[in-house]
Amino acid sequence: MRLTRCGHELQEIMLQRVFSQIASVKKDMIILEKSEFSTLLAENEKVKVELLQLKVQLADVMNKVRFDNILDMNSEKSSMKEMKSEHEKRLMESRTEIMEMNAEQNCHLTRSNMKIDTEVAGLKTMLEAHKLDTIKYLAGKKSVIHVSMH
Q1: How far apart are CA 148 and CA 150, in angstroms?
Q2: CA gap 65, 24 in Å, rounded
């Protein structure tokens, strides 16, 4: 029985060694698992921080683009207002120039009409004078003919 007892004790020792090794492996696995989990958590936090930084950068870029667009639109709007104002100014200058030219033409036309009227009146006066001279001449000739016939 001694042999069985020794065998039994030996089995028991071997079994305890196996359990001890299993416990050690289990402990190592738990440590490894915790270590991997910690690494994953750290990487996850790192990715979260990078993502947050990217979001901030994206927001900054979007704000800059928006601000630049607003500046461009305001600049373009200002340029358009200046162009409109300049165009309206040139239009008013052209209108004024046309009105001045029209007034000047009307003045020349009035002067020309007055000259024509004066010339026509002078010609009418001269025509009447010639008519009168012709009548006098004819009347004088008739008297001379009448006197010489008698």
Answers
A1: 5
A2: 60
- CA-CA distances (angstroms) from residue 75 to 53, 68, 80? 32, 10, 9
What the block records as the tokens of 33 is 């698992």
Q: What is the sign, positive or negative, of the torsion defined by CA atoms of 44, 47, 53, 59? A: negative
User: Does the global pTM surpass 0.70?
Assistant: no
pLDDT per residue over 100-146, tens digit each? 999 999 999 999 999 999 999 999 999 999 999 999 888 887 776 66
Backbone angles phi, psi at 86, to 5 degrees: -65, -40
DSSP state, 1?
A: -
Neighbours of 1 (CB within 10 A): 6
Residue 91 has pLDDT above 70, yes or no: yes
d(CA 124, CA 126): 5
